[in-house]
Amino acid sequence: MEHTPDPITPLSDAECWDRLAEQQLGRLVTRVGDVMDIFPVNYTVDGRSVVFRTGEGSKLTELTINDEVLFEVDEYTSTDAWSIVVRGSAQRLDDPDEVAAADRLPLTPWIPTVKYNYVRIVPTSLSGRDFLRGEEPDRYGIQQY
């Protein structure tokens, strides 16, 4: 019987951070009571945190009510893919020194809207997986008796 590689490989924290730093678009998941929302946001990695900008609105309001978030980023090609989930807390930056430091990050809005608020996600956990893409194995095959 031929050995095939495992199509799913866990990523180390360092590999997760490297891949997060390669991308600019992720999805932020918030929860207030029984209501969950998901928002696409452009972001940058700053040290071991994720920073994005936002305007006033539901995203910022929801983060103020409950700062626990999920942040997900992935990428795929015809041969492989990966996905990373950051679990953590999101805090609006309000300290003038933190805001000034965030102003120096390579982070500008993708759409022509004013986004005065910086938000930092500090992870409590990080998980990532690498996937080899391919055809589904034969589900029915030859039965062993």
What does this structure look like?
With about 140 residues, this protein is of the alpha+beta class. The chain has one domain (about 15-130): Roll (Pnp Oxidase, Chain A), CATH 2.30.110. About 20% of the residues lie in helices and about 45% in strands. It has 3 helices and 7 strands, in the order βαβββαββαβ. A 6-stranded antiparallel barrel has the order 2-3-4-7-6-5. The longest helix has 10 residues, at about 15-20. The two termini are about 15 Å apart. The relative contact order is 0.24.
What's a concise summary of this model?
This protein is an alpha+beta fold and 145 residues long. It has helices at 13-22, 58-65, 96-103; strands at 8-10, 25-32, 35-46, 49-54, 68-76, 80-92, 117-132. 18% of the residues lie in helices and 46% in strands.
CATH superfamily: Electron Transport, Fmn-binding Protein, Chain A
- The structure class reads alpha+beta
CATH topology: Pnp Oxidase, Chain A
The tally of beta strands, per DSSP, is 7
What is the annotated CATH architecture? Answer: Roll
Residue windows where pLDDT falls under 50 for at least 5 positions: none
Backbone shape: elongated
